[in-house]
Design goal:
Layout (H helix, E strand, L loop, with lengths): L1 H6 L4 H24 L9 H21 L5 H16 L8
Helix pairs in contact: 2-3, 3-4
Protein name: MftR C-terminal domain-containing protein
InterPro entries: Tet_transcr_reg_TetR-rel_C_sf
């Protein structure tokens, strides 16, 4: 999937279609969590899905560009980061 994104990056129409398909799949995962109150409600689900896609693609790109990139460790970090970012929870007072 990521290779296809990379291959079509210079073709705006294709990459837009692929990105939309990916976002749709992420929305299918977020929807049930939102219904159970597990996903934050202060931002639109579509935006959250787009941000999840951005983290995914960026993590893969860094791995492909840096020979010593620890994909396992950084993918786990990215997953924890995303989980925290999309989870319904009380935000600390600032």
């Amino acid at each position: 999937m990521t290779a296809e994104f990379e291959r079509t990056f210079s073709a705006p129409d294709l990459v837009a279609e692929h990105t939309a398909l990916f976002t749709t799949q992420v929305l299918r995962i977020l929807g049930p969590g939102a219904e159970r109150g597990e996903v934050r409600e202060d931002l639109p689900l579509r935006f959250l899905a787009e941000m999840i896609g951005a983290v995914y693609v960026s993590t893969i790109r860094y791995w492909r560009q840096q020979p010593d990139y620890d994909l396992r460790q950084n993918f786990a970090r990215a997953a924890r980061f995303v989980a925290e970012a999309i989870s319904a929870h009380e935000t600390p007072a600032r």
